[in-house]
Amino acid sequence: MFEIKKGIRQITAGLMVAALATAYGCGGDGDDTDSSAGITPPAQTVATTVAVDSGTIEGQKLASQVTAFYGIPYAAPPVGELRWKDPQPITWTGTKATVKMGNACAQAAGTAANGDTISEDCLYMNVWVPPELKENAKAPVVVYVHGGAFTKSSSSPRRFGGEQLAKKGVVYVNFNYRLGVFGNLALPELTGESPNKASGNYQLLDIIHALKWIQRNIAKFGGDPNNVTISGQSSGGIEMGLLNVSPLAKGLFHKIVAQSGWPGPLGNPPNLATQEQNGLKLMQATGASNLAALRGKTMDEVLTAASSSALASIRPMVAEPCIDGYAIPDKPDTLFAERKHNDVPLIAGYTSGENAPTTVTSLLTASTTIPAYQANLQSIFGGYWETVYNLFTPASDTPTAISATLSTLKNAASSGRASVYHATNVVVNGNSPAWVYIFSRPQIPAATGVAVAAPHGSDNQFWHGELDAPNADGSTYIRDARDTELANQMTDSLVAFAKTGNPSTSALYWPQYNTVLRKRMNFGNASSMADWDNGLDFFATTWLNNY
What we know:
By secondary structure, the protein is α/β, with parallel strands linked by helices. The protein has helices at about 15-20, 165, 180-185, 190-195, 200-215, 235-245, 270-285, 290-295, 300-305, 310, 330-335, 360-365, 370-380, 385-390, 400-430, 460-465, 480-500, 535-540; strands at about 5, 10, 45, 45-50, 55-60, 65-75, 95, 105, 120, 125-130, 140-145, 170-175, 225-235, 255-260, 345-350, 435-440, 520-525, 525-530.
């Protein structure tokens, strides 16, 4: 596999950090701004080279003996005339050093801190290879797609890194992809110039392009192109649902892990015509009169227009994926119902303290009395409001009791039901199994020492085995022996799923999800199969088709 160059390059830790200080940045997931520390460069390295189909790259062996390749170009920079076009191949001559992370994709200033340079030239990939793995060793491959509300973040935060998973035997890959209006802008002119008569979804096309790169090249790193597990959280989890139904992604992956995201049931992606009209509003906001003029605008000019109050208030968002008839040919739930999806095993799950949908939050957070709470339920759930009230009844008519009830209701109404809905579609409309989890381990912020319900994205450190990695806002949690045990259980389950298609291990039996028992794994203070939640059942079934 790798050519080990003669000799070990001895580099002091101080010099290495100084040399790579700008290489390791961060990104957000959910709606947070990320200020977390990036991946720490090693103090001693061994240079290794791999010849991929686009050129030769040189990575570094870390102190753990995992070999890391940071910042591999997987597509041509989408700049100039390639802005808002399908990703294109890239080649280079000579040996390209891949020892630092690539640029974060264009996004609003301040949302990718810690040394990530923000640029449209951002289509870069990172690969972590297990110790001593040889070419064509057929190790399972895990590919992670970061979140960030479609508009921000990057692959560089340590909580998204692959070193710990690679130590357990998988080839791990993550990458950057176009974000916001650079990733999802649709326009009539863009549709007209496209050979596929589609526009928008450049973000999804970048992800698919990266998966194709992996198919062509991952065997050189010891990975098995016929055993690829894709994983994503938040908007990355939504991308998992889109890949599950996209015909362009057929055969590019073999298992899915969807964390806190699904393109329904809060609504399917908007259609192309709607997004084209939203795109015209962006063009108008920039002062451009046509596509050529818009391509002539600077990155900052486009970002400024996109962040204006007039654009930010558009629903659906200008930066959302759309049903373009090409990458996403129809509504995801329709494609599942017609059995036109990519039929692969699934793990889907959520955390106990998820963000709730804006449409629910805005109506419910004002409730401080039971009459106000009941009135708001009626405005949201119509004829189902009494069912919801009976499932989520406050213990008393006090703001504290109502707030506690609202927290439980919001969680069931958001990512919880989305995860169950995704799993139900997989097992009902295909031949593949599914597993469902809830991550309920309370998190204790170091800043306060007060435990909170597991926030959106807090399962990332556990799935990646990076317990000390900072959160999106730079904060950290207090950890104990149970956290270490839980991280080992979750990473072992992920590795088992990647290897065999079943997340059960010798230490943790995880039964399949089915629509009768509807059991879910509870990763909490203990790891055990959880009894079903009637409120979650309601949101994942009855209300789902009437929202």
